[in-house]
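During the reporting period the student researcher (J.K.) took over the structure-prediction task from the postdoctoral fellow and processed the backlog of single-chain submissions. One of the processed entries is reproduced below for the supervisory committee.
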Amino acid sequence: MDDYFVHESAYIDENVTIGKGTKIWYFSHIQSGARIGEGCNIGQNVNIANHVVVGNGCKIQNNVSIYEGVELEDFVFCGPSMVFTNDLTPRCMYPKNHSEYSRTLIKKGASIGANATIVCGHTVGENALIASGAVVTKDVKPYALMAGVPAKRIGWVCECGEVLREGLVCSGCGRRYKHKEESDELFPLKEEVEE
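J.K. obtained the following structure tokens:
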């Protein structure tokens, strides 16, 4: 435990991997088989279920449960009280084996706002931004700005998080993007970023 911090009120099961520099705060529970990367910040009252994978540099805010079947790549942000699911047809009388849970993948750099819901079985693309309270019911393209119930793409966001305006040049960092209409996808242009 010299390489990471666990608050005395948190509970860590056996067979858990926690990376260097990670902090786990009040009343959180990390279940058996979970793997948490380096430099993560896991807030109060967070539950990370069996066999969940959390990449490096992730920030998981208070009251988030990451259920089995969910994987977070590096630098994912999970806002307060956002929700993951792992079963489209849950029944108490007919519990499923963990191998039957739907897989959900949150790609590198994606952010999920407070009280948003990610319905299981979908992928949220790199650097996508899910607005607070949105309900994601389908795959999300990289750099997409998603809002509403069900969530729809209402724009695009830069890797740095700024909403892209007309011209697809970031007003914050200067990155430039190209939109391919035939696939409705956004791609970063390989240029130097203005400092």
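The committee noted the following: The chain has a mean pLDDT of 95.
J.K. will present the remaining backlog at the next meeting.
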